[in-house]
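Weekly sync notes, structure subgroup
Attendees: PM, AL, DS (notes)

Item 1: joint prediction request from the bench team. They want all two components modeled as one assembly rather than separately. Inputs as received:
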Amino acid sequence: QKEVEQNSGPLSVPEGAIASLNCTYSDRGSQSFFWYRQYSGKSPELIMFIYSNGDKEDGRFTAQLNKASQYVSLLIRDSQPSDSATYLCAASNTGFQKLVFGTGTRLLVSP
Amino acid sequence: NAGVTQTPKFQVLKTGQSMTLQCAQDMNHNSMYWYRQDPGMGLRLIYYSASEGTTDKGEVPNGYNVSRLNKREFSLRLESAAPSQTSVYFCASVNTGGVYEQYFGPGTRLTVT
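Output from the run, pasted for the record:
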């Protein structure tokens, strides 16, 4: 069983809608969580990180963390076609510098 | 700043050939990483270097060797390439200022025939 699980998708949403991307993790020692966006043929780029329970907002993006449920999510408000990409969830155990990545969820935003 | 750079961008090898993938960062990061990315498998850690002079195995180290040449450079060597090593390879470096945010290079697309 992979330590970080994501639905591979594709998740299809219309332009302007809210896209909700989900991720679960198995290692209860995980302390920091990251969302990366990866366009086809490109390298991952960091969108957000979160390490406290609750919500963290940055522009159109909101990351949510629930450590009791071992669940991380990313909400994208007012989705745009340019948001179409694969979103990678990653977890890090405090004291280590290694990230464990999920396989990613492909998001398609239609005009 | 160029960030994280990788060479080459593309490479085709025959089975049994060797090659070295180069990675350099100019952000004064202590830690550097090599990942491979395969369809449906996500990013998997091959080796990492927490600091200059140290290297450690990741999830899939077999068939690879690494060298942390100095603080800036971290190379990945395939001694005898196999078709199973066909993949996209990413180098990354980490800002260890508290959050471990990783910055990725542009990747090397390797095909082994």
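Discussion: The CA atoms of residues 82 and 105 of chain B lie 23 Å apart.
Action: AL to compare against the crosslinking data before next sync.
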